[in-house]
Amino acid sequence: MMTTAVPPVAPGALPYDDAEMPLSLVQTRTRRFVLRVIWSSTAFLVVAGILGLLLRLRQGEVISMGDNFWYAVMTAHGLGAFIAWAGFFLMGITFWVLMKVGMPLRSFVLPEVMYWSMMLGVVGIVLTTLLSGFGGSWVFLYPLPFFSAGQWSDTVTGIFSTSVLLAGVSILAYCAAVLQTCLSPALKAEKDTLGQRIGLTFGFGLLFPSRFKTKRGKIPYPVLPFAVNAVDMFLATLPFALLLVFNIVQSVNNGFSINVLLAGNLLWAFGHPVVYLLLFPAAATYYYLIPRYAGRELVAGKAVAVAWLIALTMNLFVWAHHLYMNYPDGENVQQTLGTIMQPTTYALVLPSALSLYSIAATIYRSNFQWNVTSKFLVAGIVSWLVAGLQGIINATAAFQDTLHNTLWIVGHFHNMAFLNMGLLIFGAMYAFLPELMGRPWWNERLGSWHLWGTIVGAYGWVTCQMIQGLEGAPRRWAVLPSEYLTLTHISLGFLALLVAAQLVFAYNLWTTLRRSPFDDPKAVSVLGGTQR
Amino acid sequence: MPDRLITSLVMMTSLGKGIATGYLVFVALGLIIAFGVLWSTKRGRREGGQGVDIERAERAEPWWGVFVVVLLAILLGMTIWRAPWFAEGDDPRDVQVQVTGIQFGFLVQPTTVKAGQNVQFNVTSKDVNHAIALFNPQGQMIMNVQAVPEYTISRSYTFTEPGTYTIRCFEFCGYQHHKMIYPAFQVTA
After folding, report:
1. Is residue A8 assigned to a domain?
2. In sequence order, which residues have a C-beta less than 8 Å from that of residue A187 and are 6 or more positions away?
């Protein structure tokens, strides 16, 4: 029997931890809310995963599929896997981690807005893509939504844009809820002013401890990435929402149009930071969980606070690296933006590099508790390093003749999204579900099979894509040129292993849900007893 | 399978091989460090996790940050001047080639140039965003330029090798995107 819940650290080591939190209705409601998000997002993973598999099977000429349907599936898969699964899951788990570090939700209005707008948005995206044939890709690069070559109507574009806008509303509600939580009186600032709370939330208490004091000791490190992400995603979602509104207007008024380059900039002002909608909560969850397995507090000082301040500012000024190849003659703005945003993108390496240092130093020569959960976390952290190195390459304008819109990029973001954030998500499920559900995992051995099947299967698959990319294989091609077929077939073997590993996970989860409730109250550390 | 691997090496450009090599070197270094950290937990178990000077590790963190910044600054200095918009030289162009993307094909004029000529490609689009990716006779991608409606992007290239070159669309442009190929751009001796 696999009974591992999140282990507590040595008493007193984390003064901000849940030990001082009262059991209350808020905790119970948070638990129910987070579970609801977990089940919903996991259902989206199943759908998005099947769609992704179909895409690759068609590329491998194993199955046949209509051309436009392939691109519609691609659109649904991209939004489904990235936003509806990984993003949504991490948005939900945010509130559990915040509660565990002593920052419970202040209100459930915004989280409920977050939940239902995401659900409605996903329904709209599924209907417009898989049923109505919208196949403009998840970036639906303007003006493509209005040049469908007869495959979908402007009305479908309008409904699709509205659906994505609803997902954007979900993100905005999430950001507002996180800020409401992080800036709350739970900070216990000595001088309880808004300025003090803002300073404490964004790490100034670590930099200037004499000016930003609390009655609770050091502000928990997970608060930093959560808060930074909330501010950045709030700001980054607004231009994207504007673009979606433009699309909706044009869908009902054909005379309306916008500048193509402006549209590209509005898109990527959101399209890159949205990666951090996943990565920053993932970082916060690592910050929370790793110390518990290492049995010591996160090894971090002022440098980490500085890194997150850099992230707070630079995250909003990196989008143009997606537009490196758009440098029209006589139009210097894009070239200037590209020149500026290579170094600003490099600057975003610092939060990752310093986080990885902190996590490594926390693990180093610790009495680390190895189990399925911690192995998932460690595998995710190593993938963070590997995918981060790929990210530096991608951010380099001089390499774009070789990399731009190739399968290397697809391999990279699957490496980051699935093998970093995805492994963290699975680790978080193994860590938190026992206390959320009030019952232990059924079988640890199946957890190990899930781990190794996922790592070998997913790395084999993304490595094939990255090699194909370096050979010049294009992304977003329903049918790849024949010279890439061999590696596609090899990747399908790895994908079969990956699918098998997820089936093992599903069986373990299903059996866990059917077993009797948890009978070890000590393992349910946060809630102080067995919860149904 | 061996034939396939040899083909892969041929299809990668020298830049692609350089990227792959640099990436693999850093990944190997990172993995060695990562496994060293993970291996140290065996010793940590014997020590009860008490054998490390935590404050020293915290003091070292800013220096790690400085080290990363220096590495990135070096990479920036080495590469930013090779960004596509800086890389265009002032050499006189021998011939202008107009390439226009339109769902789902390319209008190319002229379709033949001579090896040794400095060719300027003027790339644009009539409808949505496209991109031209130019592949040499060995199947290597040697150039990648966006085709943006209402704008023109110019890019020059000096062909050294005669043969038939292929243009593929590299920006998703609709349901026939993967069929948007111009297979017969000729470079004569």
Report:
1. no
2. A103, A196, A197, A200, A201, A214, A216, A219
Give me the domain span that covers residue B119: 91-188
Minimal CA separation from A264 to chain B, in Å? 10
CB A268 within 8 A of CB A320: yes
Specify whether B103 is located in the same domain as B182: yes
- The phi and psi torsions of A72 (rounded to 5 degrees) equal -65, -40
* Complex-level ipTM: 0.95
Nearest to A480 by CA among B31, B92, B139: B139
The span from the CA of A45 to the CA of A49, in Å, is: 6
The enclosing domain of A289 has a CATH number of 1.20.210.10
pLDDT greater than 80 at residue A21: no
**Residue A428, amino acid:** A
Q: Could you tell me the two tokens for A176?
A: 């507002």
pLDDT tens per residue, range B100-109? 999 999 999 9
Q: Which of A413, A407, A409, A353 is nearest to A381 (CA)?
A: A353
Tens digits of residue pLDDT in A296-312: 999 998 999 999 999 99
CA distance B189 to chain A (A): 25
In a domain, A4, yes or no: no
Reply yes or no on whether the pLDDT at A20 is more than 70: no
Nearest to A149 among B38, B103, B133 (CB): B103
A284 found inside a domain: yes
* CB-CB neighbors (< 8 A) of A390 in chain B: 23
| Domain-embedded: residue A5 | no
Task: Give residue-wise pLDDT tens across range A367-425.
Answer: 999 999 999 999 999 999 999 999 999 999 999 999 999 999 999 999 999 999 999 99
Residues B108 and B58 in one domain: no
The structural domain count of chain B equals: 2
Range 82-111 of B in CB contact (< 8 A) with A = 82-87, 103-104
pLDDT of residue A133: 97
pLDDT in tens, A473-526: 999 999 999 999 999 999 999 999 999 999 999 999 999 998 766 555 444 433
Q: B41 and A477: CB-CB below 8 Å?
A: no
Q: Tell me: do B174 and B108 sit in the same domain.
A: yes
Which of B85, B120, B145 corresponds to the end of one domain? Answer: B85
Domain count, chain A: 1
C-alpha triplet A436, A441, A444: angle, nearest 5°: 145
State the residue range of the domain holding A462: 18-523
Hey, is the C-beta of B68 within 8 angstroms of any chain A C-beta? yes
